[in-house]
Please model this.
Amino acid sequence: MEERGITTVYIEDEVQRSYLDYAMSVIIGRALPDVRDGLKPVQRRILYAMYEAGLFSNRPFKKSATVVGDVLGKYHPHGDMAVYDALARMAQDFSLRYPLIDGQGNFGSIDGDAPAAYRYTEARLTKLAEELLRDLDKDTVDFTPNFDGRLKEPKVLPANIPNLLLNGASGIAVGMATNIPPHNFKELVNGLVALIDNPDLDVDDLLKYIKGPDFPTGGVILGKEGIYEAYRTGKGKVIIRGKFQVEEIKGGKKRIVITEIPPQLNKSNLISKIALMVKAKRIEGVSDLRDESDREGIRIVLELKRDTEPKVVLNQLYYNTPLQTTYGIILLGLVDNTPRVLNLLELCKNFLDFRYQTVFRRTEFELKKASKRAHILEGLKKALSNIDRVIELIKKSKDSETAKEKLIKEFELTETQATAILEMKLARLTSLEQGKIEEEYLFLIKEISRLENLLSSRQSIMEVIKKELLSLREKFGDDRRTMIIEGEVEELMQEDLIAEEEVAIIITNEGYIKRMPVSLYKRQLRGGTGRIGMIVSERDFVKGILTASTHDYLLFFTDRGRCYWLKVYDIPEGSYQSRGRSIVNLLELEKEERITSYLAISEFVKGKFIFMITKSGKVKKVSLEEFSHPRRKGILSINLDEGDELIHTLLLSGKEDIMLISSQGKALRFSESLVRPMGRMATGVKGMSLRKGDNLIGGVSIKEEEMLLLINKKGLGKRVDYKTFLSKGRGGMGMICAKISQGSGPLIKALGVKEKDEIILITKLGTVLRLKVSEIRKQGRNTVGVRLIKLRENDEVVDATRVSYEE
Model:
């Protein structure tokens, strides 16, 4: 509605219209590259201004301030720093795979240092950039008026090279973004040539030639699935890691040297992040960190502590720092000023279609030029064949206009030809010059024929494009920098960040647990006093010890027949004197439930069984696979009779002999096959009959190369040969395995050991002793044993574990 010169406009309509205008301005005029030359407007204007100023690769450098001034004054009326930042980026070999500007001076660094002010730096075009501008003067592209209409600028550069894929692009517009990675020149040309030879290729065919992104800083791409997805759909993600090498240094130590980093990563920030993670103990085993980078390349050095596993440190680096990062690919560009997400094949076809148009227009331009010159030469030839008459006509004419008219009339010339004759120098009248004219005319006739044939055949033009691409490949092609690793990408698990080592796990009666490296327990002779392995309270005492790998699962079995899971690396590491952490903080045990047995499991493989032994003499066998799905609240592993307890578990293969041992020195040997596999809810069967006052302390699986090691509460022990025990049926009373006396106390532990093994004993008051099995005497069945550890007053041995020689 209009009234008295006032127009009513609804604010929502005005906001919508204004915002759309702004959005399209950002999309088309600032943030997104054109699929044809791969450039944003500011980049295109910088290169064109340098082209106009004659800043070619074979000319002297000029101040960057000159270029910035030309761009601002002629084509890009925005901030000077926006122009200079774009110029500097095109000169950075760590930002562009193939720099378009040859810079002299400080153009910034991979550490994030800003370029020097534009009054200090100088620039000129690179040879590659000249290929983007080649044939610009041959009417290959359209021009448009600049911002004030004084000048004209190209809408797009002719681009002999596939710059969008070659150098990639990134930009955030309104409601959309692009992130196109750079690629290798050789691979791109190979792919384009294959597409010219066979236009029916699909994306998968093209992937045989174009392997994947090739970043200026190198690095390693993990797996090809992300690349394939991006190239097929236009969107995808790839995981990139830095490249490293492990070097040996003095003293048996090692160091990790990072030589390449992921793209767009600030090296200084990476080093700061690594230092922060080392300080926070998220990265362990690093004794020194320094930057030894120079002009030759990146060299970030991490010196490792002795016996530190480099693979674990690298996994910690990948997990906690940007040394491993995800690069999101979005193949979005402007097609006819419309933003579109394209796949790899569409990007290549768009470039080849554009090259066809530019070569077609170049050919047309050259044909017009050749035809015009041939037309003039035809006139010159007529004049030279009638030179005397031509000279006479010119001499008798009162002025040049009259002479032109007479020449046109008498020799049937065009005005252009007549003008050329009048402007011809007398030197052209020599016989040598006349021969040159004839030679030039014949060459032009052939050239015109060639150009006309080109214009009549699309395939001929495509062959020209192919020939030019192959020539550029020879000139600019180089080797791939970014390595691509085949196979699926495995996500880093927590255990990948933990060094795999053998640890001793100590558990107290009141439910405290800790782990310590086995290497910390120094070996002593038999009968030694041991070393304090844990400070315990007056009420608490050490209950058990076992060895396992940090990557193992620990299965906890309770007196009520339930099973709980815990990764060994989740058990807090403690010192000699520390109590550790309460198990109730790690496992969701029921009220007053006690842990009575534990097994370290590396894999839940088929064909393995957990053999359970109860205090009253019952046994049960369950497939290990039944325990392969951890639950926080545990699962039932055996259904117990009232008053009975689960006291011990073994990991068996299904074909072994079992020996059950009681606290009063009785042992029963029988075949495991006599106990059939059962479900977790079953009660089990009788394993051994016991006298009143006796109970089972556990059992062992019999192996030919091992012997039975028996340990008493009072610190005595002995080795007994398995051959002295006859194999009997399940459910019997067994045979004597040890003489029990007041001085020895009841048996508390039975282990299968080898001659080269070691054992670790632990006492009620927390004393730990590590000793060689070979120091423990072999004895008969009806003997007490020898002194293994000298106990303090009121102390007693509560548990022992085997340290395998192979481990």
